[in-house]
Amino acid sequence: MAHIVAITSCPTGIAHTYMAAEGLENGAKKLGHIIKVETQGSVGVENKLTEAEIAAADVVIIAADTNVDKSRFNGKKVYETNSKAAIKDGAGLITTALES
After folding, report:
1. What is the mean pLDDT of residues 58-82?
2. Structural domain containing residue 60
3. DSSP 16
4. Structural domain count, the chain
5. Residues annotated catalytic, as ranges
């Protein structure tokens, strides 16, 4: 079981941000992993990742179509992709991120 933190974001910050989060959450559940997803949408940051959660993570997944500040993740394994990848196949994306 892996501990994963993720950020999802899209230019308009509405549908794809939350669909990508749901894709990752469902994928992690299917694979038996623990995940927390921070969304950076039109209403701002929701479900903000804590320093402890980031420190405990085996991988950081950024599924975004916008620029995400990665400075919080120095020294962590970071896997970057777009929101569509998380929406289409969250479990596959998580597997790829963990193996990269």
Report:
1. 96
2. 3-99
3. H
4. 1
5. 10
